[in-house]
Specification:
The chain has helices at about 1-20, 55-60, 70-90, 90-95, 115-125, 185-200, 210-225, 235-240, 255-270, 350-370, 385, 410-415, and strands at about 40, 65-70, 100-110, 145, 155-160, 165-175, 205-210, 230, 250, 295, 300-305, 310, 340-345, 370-375, 400. It is an alpha/beta fold and about 425 residues long. The structure holds beta-D-glucopyranose. Beta-D-glucopyranose binds near residues 44, 184, 211, 351 and 353.
């Protein structure tokens, strides 16, 4: 008798879950074709790594395809402004060798990554060192070494502070790529600052970095000891903590909002509810995002989190980068949003931002959203290190993809065709 009741209720539960979700259940679905399953590109937007042009085909792979990232231009502008404000406020101590030249060095993450390019441009624009190319865009090439100011990729800027005119010079910049090909490489940045400092250390007044991973490596290798402020991006916990010790500042790209959105759009697509649920419109559990933390661009099917500067004034509010964003931290109901299985990769297991900030956040949100996520890491160099781990797409309900190279979306969509 007992057995029968159980069998009946199982059948009822299965029927319910099929009806509620349009097919699919735990551990993947055999009724939904892979090509129709939700796909979220995140952190690396499908785009041409040479021209930056967005890959609209990949962004429109199916009706449940989205991109989740952050507003690169708004963040880049903030980073440049933060550095400029710091220089102005601390001018008495900045120009260490008193030569009237404020020299900075710049660590570039990946010359083919739109976010990295935006940050290089943001710093150069704010400091007056930007050069506009014939096509109207700001040159984002690395200069190598430019201690004599002769590079054509940048120019010397001028800053008037307290009645005195200073020259601002990008003394050196380099893409931090290791010999195996991994970009945003912290170790390479640590070596670069050591090399630069040994030949023109007394001229370096400021260090700018496209991210905190490289920034912290330079801070530890040289700038901390030499009282030179380093500015990064990401607001990883270790970098925020270092502000107390002289790290200049960083930018929060609201990873707490991005990680939520990455899984939330999947949740909504699988539940077959309005895409704005739990985003601009509160869900039944009360999760909702306000307009000051994200925006949605319909044309590119992209959600962009907004950035916030983290400096000596406010860093204490950002000490733990793995805390979920309170307005979207409510458990969703298992009845209406039953467990689903998601395949999600990070492009590089050693990427500082993804491993120390983004992934811990995803791991918290997956519970809140009833998603069983299989986390897979790439080696940061060859796309196959990721693709080979997606052997059986049929066993998942949805996919969240962080490409190694932004040109390679097709390698993934081919697998799902
Ligand atoms: C982060 C970098 C990270 C990169 C990986 C960027 O948004 O700021 O720290 O290395 O994403 O794609």
């Amino acid at each position: 008798m007992k057995k029968k009741v159980l069998a009946l209720s199982l059948a009822a539960a299965m029927a319910f879950s099929l009806a509620a979700c349009g097919g699919g259940g735990e551990g993947g679905s055999d009724t939904v074709a892979n090509k129709d399953k939700p796909v979220v590109w995140y952190n690396r937007q499908p785009s041409n790594s040479t021209t930056g042009e967005l890959n609209t085909e990949a962004l429109n792979f199916n009706e449940d395809t989205y991109y989740v990232g952050f507003d690169a231009n708004q963040g880049a502008e903030l980073q440049g402004q933060m550095i400029l404000d710091y220089i102005k406020a601390n001018i008495a101590d900045i120009d260490k060798n008193n030569d009237g030249v404020i020299g900075y060095v710049l660590a570039i993450g990946d010359v083919g990554h739109n976010d990295s390019i935006a940050r290089t441009r943001g710093v150069r624009s704010a400091l007056g060192t930007a050069v506009t190319k014939e096509d109207g865009t700001i040159d984002s090439e690395a200069v190598g070494t430019n201690t004599d100011g002769s590079s054509t990729h940048v120019q010397d800027g001028k800053l008037e502070i307290d009645g005195k005119t200073y020259t601002v010079r990008e003394l050196a910049s380099q893409e931090m790529k290791n010999t195996a090909g991994a970009t945003w490489d912290a170790g390479t940045a640590g070596n670069a600052i050591t090399t630069w400092a040994s030949s023109f250390g007394d001229q370096i007044d400021v260090i700018a970095s496209n991210n905190d991973g490289m920034g912290m490596s330079m801070f530890t290798a040289w700038s901390n000891e030499n009282d030179v402020p380093t500015f990064g991006y990401d607001a990883n916990s270790d970098a925020v903590k270092a502000i107390a010790d002289g790290y200049g500042g960083t930018i929060s790209q609201h990873a707490d909002v991005q990680a939520y959105l990455t899984l939330r759009v999947i949740r909504n697509a699988l539940d077959n509810v309005d895409m704005d649920t739990g985003i601009g419109t509160a869900d039944a559990a009360g999760n909702v995002l306000s307009e000051d933390v994200y925006k949605y661009d319909e044309a590119t099917r992209s959600y962009y989190a907004l950035n916030v500067a983290v400096t000596g004034d406010n860093y204490k509010d950002f000490l733990d980068s793995t805390v979920t964003w309170a307005p979207v931290s409510n458990q969703v109901d298992k009845e209406t949003s039953p467990e689903k299985s998601v395949w999600l990769n990070t492009y590089n297991s050693t990427d500082n931002f993804l491993s120390s900030t983004y992934k811990p956040l995803l791991q918290k949100y997956d519970d809140l959203l009833n998603l069983k996520v299989e986390y897979v890491d790439g080696d940061g160099q060859s796309e196959s290190s990721v693709i080979n781990k997606l052997g059986n797409p049929s066993s998942y309900d949805a996919f969240a993809i962080n490409m190694i190279k932004t040109d390679n979306a097709i390698s993934y969509t081919n697998l799902l065709q």
